[in-house]
Amino acid sequence: MPVPIVNYVALGSFMFFIGVIGVLVRRNPLIILMSIELMFNAANLLFIAFARVWLQNAGHIFAFLVITVAAAEAAIGLAIVVTTFRSEKNVDVDEVRSLRG
Amino acid sequence: MIVLVTILLPIAAGGLLYLLPREDRERSRLAGTLVAAATFLMLIAGRDQEWSFRWLSRPFTAAFHFGATPISFWIALLLALCTASAIAATRVNRTRDFTALMLMLEGTMLGLFLARDLLVFALFWDLMLLPVFFALIGWGEHVATAWRYFIYNFAGGLTLLLATAAFGVIYGSTDVIGRGGAHLVGSWAPWIYAGFAFAFLVKTPIWPLHTWMPPTYTALPPPMAAVVGAVQSKAGLYGFLAIAVALMPVYVTQYASPLIVLGAISLIDGGVVALVQNDAKRVVAYSSLSHLGLIVIAIVSTNQLALAGALVYIIAHGLFTAALFILLGYVEEREGTRSLIRLGGVAWANPRLAGALCIAALAALGLPGLAGFVGELFIVIGVYQAGYVWPVIVALIAIVLAAAYMLRLYQDIMNGPQVEDVPVRRDLTWREGLAVAPLLAALVLLGVQPSAILASVSSVTSGAHAAASMEAQR
Amino acid sequence: MTYPLLLALWLAPLASAVICWAFGPQLRTRSGWLASGFVALSFALAVASWPAGTQSAGGALGAHQRLFSWGPGFDFGLLLDPLSLLWTYIITGVGFLIVFYSIGYMDGDRAFARFFAYMSFFVFAMLTLVLSDNFVGLLVGWGLVGLASYFLIGFWFDRPSAVAAARKAFVINVVGDVGVMFAIALIVANVHSIGFSDTFAGAATFSSGLLFAICLALFIGAAAKSAQVPLHTWLPDAMEGPTPVSALIHAATMVTAGVYLVARCAPLWSRNPEAQLLVGTIGGLTALLGAILGTAQWDIKRILAYSTMSQIGYMIMGVGVGAYEGGVAHFFTHAFFKAQLFLTSGLIIHALSDEQDIRRMGGLWKRMPFAFWAMLTGVLSICGFPGFSGFFSKDEVIYGALQHGHPWLYAVGILTAGITAYYMFRLLFITFLGEYRGEAGTPHGHAPAWIMNAPVAILVVPSVAIGAALMIGGDSSPWARFFAPLFAPQALLAPSPAATPPLSEGLTSVIVLICVAVGFAVAWYRYATPVAQADAVERLRSETAHMPPVLTNLFYVDAAIDLIFVQSAQFLGTISGRVVDPAVLDGAVREAAFSAGWLGAVVRSFQTGLVRAYALLLVAGAAGFIVYYALAGTAH
Predict the structure, then answer these.
(1) Pairing assessment for the beta strands B62-67 and B50-56 based on DSSP bridges
(2) List of chains touching A (3+ CB pairs within 8 A)
(3) B-C contacts (CB, under 8 Å)
């Protein structure tokens, strides 16, 4: 018996909100990056689930695309964190405000 | 081909000038004068020639199409003459770099006046701002003046470009300058005309768009002020003649009233403000506002005689404005000031300078027998013939004002007791005298016999008039 | 018929001007002789042109020489007919005498050659004015004589007063120029030509409103050039120039250009009685006003300047009412006697080393008998003493006013004649009688006295006798016959005057003479009796102190013009240049730039640099979208 789609949506939404709250409340850039990954994966989960429901492959393709982009984004994000740490000796996102207008 | 070479020669020569040593004043000045004089001769040689190279075919056809029209021929000659005179009269720091900028200015403006394609016209419209902008930054006192000049005129360039693009899309081609029978009508045409007119009015300039002009003319070194005040300000008027009147005569006539009102305000405003300025260059700048207002009135009246007068006055104004700026530059070199309050009695030590300034000032106030008078006379006759009586009265009042402020300019500098605190005075050298002599000679010549210029307007506007009368009959 | 000699006549003074200007430092004192020679050459050619100028071949009067053309309708040429011939004689003949006189008067001046360049240029410009066969050529001459006048008034340009006077003269003359320019616009718009003959041929078709407008515009030019009220204020100030300049330009020739213009355009004026009335009235008013102001001056040249203004008023009145021959006749005789008076005053000024105040003169008849006799003949002529030239021409003008139906102008003319006698004899008595009241200096310059005396002596002859020689005999006099071909057709155009004037010409002369005698008697009583001579210094001081303010302030015309035109233009300029341009126009642009900056500042405040704040905004935005679409979905 297949798992009903509602369960997937609930789990995906739950993961997504954990990610959102993680981005909003944590000050460590590593944790923020991980929270962003969490949101990506929530989205991936829904893509796959709905692809199964509608019997279309587009969801699978999007999931792969998202995984690729997420990997690239994590690499760039980590690189920024490292260079920021080198120049500022600090990675707390509330303290590093050199992009203020 | 000679047309293309005429345009490219000064630009290339400007670049090559940087091969000379940085402080080689004499040779760069000589080279610059010779190049400008060469363009003068080449313009005459290539009077009837054209050169064209296809640029765009979609969404409309456009071409790098150059060649003198009967109107632009005279203005281009004026440009070459003024540039040669101005470079010969140059006496600034970093002469080599300055001369290079002057040549590039001449080249870009030749491109503008010789362009037969609206898109090329718009391209050179923006290009010709750059040398002046760099000169303002390099030789002016405030960078703000440079930006003010650039932003004002670039805003005009923007509406010009938009209008050109719209024109091309609707008409199908922008290769239309100087081509008889090309006319634009339709619901978009008034907006296109407005776009052109705004650009031209900023460049001319006309009240209330003139506030960039006095500081620009004051800040520029005299030779470049001469070329900008004499010829670059004519780009807008040339545009009116060659684009607005030739391609959209119906709308020029239809929307003449607001422009005539603005022209009349410029006439009086420029006159009364020039009357109370104490900086000699500002007097000339505001006098330009007044004189160019008169030309705008003449052009939008689209009367045959007024247009002929406008062209003569365009040339005459160029000649005497260039002469005035160059001569005021000489005065400033000698006396170290431009203030009419501090200057005085210069004629005692500099009779030749006084004579030259006198001729230029008299031409500016429209003395009969000099070129300015011919222009004013034909404009007054033509505008009256076109049925505008009160602008004629305003113009006549402005002529009286011109007499007052030009005499004040001349007398406050040259007459009165000699000011004592200036160490050395010398009269004009041969080089300085020869630099302005062609301008003054041309003023006298055109004042006596202007028929060559008077005749050249009819050939261009006759087609426009046919269209206008057709429209009126409809 | 073509007449190339006209070109030589016209261009000789120009050649002289160019040579004197270009080679002044080399020529030095020879420039005076050179200029005199060229002007004399012009005069000789003019004399030789008498037959050509008076002939009438093929219906066209005089000689014509084509010059060049600017285009259809704009043809330039020279025309020598009786009217321009007369002016040419005065310009070159009297001009020669005055230029010659200047060799002595200007001797020792640091800009000797420049003076003669300007004088020659003036003669050329004036010839351009009177010889042109079209309105544009006339306007060119009109402007150029104004320029020459400007140069010569401001000749001593280290004096601020001379510089200011020159500027004033030029600007007021430009007012006249633009008047003529407007007239040209009216004419070209209607006849499509600038030529005199085309215009006068077309005048028959003009409406009376158009005719009046053309006449009015032309008369603005004439009034400015001929110092008619209210554009007269420049003429007295113009006396800042050297005295020969005052004699040539501001007495004999240039200021009578207005008379020439009205006489030349007789076919226009004769068709329009309103314009005639206007011009006649202004002329009469100027005659009276100039005479009244002349009684209150102390500067010898300013007295003569006001008298010039008054006499030109007579001429304008004459040509205005239609008495063209009379007005032109008065120009002709006035040129001689006024030039003579000015040159004589120049002798005095020269001898007293530039003293011009008559209160510091007196008793000069003993020191300068020649000047006294020259001045006396001039005064008698200007007052219209019977037999002298002025008598004939002035009576012709005054009687002409009555003949053409203007009794008020007739009365004004008679009254002015009396006042003229008073102020001219006042000048003569204060200057020459009694005891010398000044401190004599030594005259500058070393030229022999005959150079200055000879021209004066020559001028005495026509100013005494030319009227009697030419103007006796009414319509059959040589004068009337000379002008008959030119002005007789105009008489037919004008509305017929009153059949016979109530007073005859002889009676008019008697009335004028009585007025002149009264004027003379008052002047004699106040300045010439032994009692008056005894305490002359005290009397003159008291007269100075008790002069009515309205006269010392010249009827407040200068002040009014200054207030209404000069001050208001300067005020407008100050407002516009100091307030409108920087604050309003530039201010608007600057406000636009500032508001762009302000907008940037507002947006910038969102850019905190806090990554978590950005994230919050992002979430809020996303939430907003979700809510919007949820609501939009339920609305469906």
Answers:
(1) antiparallel
(2) C
(3) 130
**Touch between chain A and chain B: 3 or more Cβ pairs under 8 Å:** no
Nearest CA in chain C to A25: C612
Confidence check: pLDDT of C449 > 80: no
**Inter-chain contact C143–B367, Cβ cutoff 8 Å?**
yes
Query: Which pLDDT score, from 0 to 100, does residue B474 have?
Result: 45
Instruction: Render the burial of C296-313: b for 16+ CB within 10 Å, e for the rest.
Output: bbbebbbbbbbbbbbbbb
**Chain B, 120-139: which have a CB under 8 Å from a chain C CB?**
none
C-alpha distance from B185 to closest chain C C-alpha (Å): 31
- Which positions ≥6 away from A68 have C-beta within 8 Å? none
Residue that has been written with the tokens 């008169």 in this structure: B294
**Residue C440 DSSP class:** -
Amino acid at the residue B385 = Q
Task: Tell whether C213 lies on the interface with B, counting CB pairs under 8 A.
Answer: no
Residues C25-76: tens digit of each pLDDT: 888 788 899 999 999 999 999 999 888 888 877 667 888 888 888 888 899 9
C590 vs C599: CA distance, rounded Å: 14
- The nearest CA of chain C is from the CA of B403 a distance in Å of 6
Between B187 and B426, whose confidence is greater?
B187
At residue A97, the pLDDT reads 79
Residue B466 pLDDT > 60: no
- Whether residue B459 has pLDDT greater than 60: no
pTM: predicted TM-score of the whole model, two decimal places: 0.89
Any idea what DSSP says for residue A4? P
Nearest chain C Cα distance for residue B91, angstroms:
27
**Tokens describing residue B94:** 């970093």
Of B96, B126, B123, the closest CA to residue B15 belongs to: B96
Q: Could you tell me which residues are beta bridge partners of residue C74?
A: C71
Tell me if chain A has a CB within 8 Å of the CB of C575: no
Q: Extract the tokens encoding C607.
A: 């850019």
pLDDT per position as a tens digit, C388-402:
888 888 888 898 888
- Cβ of B272 within 8 Å of Cβ of C576? The answer is yes
pLDDT at position C367 is 82
Stretch C284-301: mean pLDDT, rounded?
92
d(C-alpha C485, C-alpha C503), whole Å: 28
C143 in B contact zone (CB under 8 Å)? yes
Q: Do A101 and C616 touch (CB under 8 A)?
A: no
Give how far Cα C549 sits from Cα of B146, C229, C256, C310, C427, Å: 57, 19, 30, 21, 21
Q: Is B380 on the interface with C (CB under 8 A)?
A: yes
Interface predicted TM-score (ipTM): 0.92
What b/e readout covers C524-547, taking b as 16+ CB neighbours within 10 angstroms? bebbbeeebbeebeebbeeeeeee
CB contact (8 A) between residue B400 and residue C572: no
**Chain B contact present for C567, CB below 8 A:** no
Residue C611 sits at φ, ψ, to 5 deg, of: -60, -35
Query: What's the pLDDT at B54?
Result: 92
Note if the bond before C244 is cis, omega within 30 degrees: no
| Sign, CA torsion C145/C146/C147/C152 | positive
Q: 10 Å Cβ neighbour count for B462?
A: 11
Q: What is the CA radius of gyration of chain B?
A: 21
Q: Which of C147, C574, C576 sits opposite B367 (nearest CB)?
A: C147
Q: Please state the φ and ψ torsions of residue C79, each to the nearest 5 degrees.
A: -135, 125
Residue C627 predicted with pLDDT over 60? yes
Token digits for B199? 């650009």
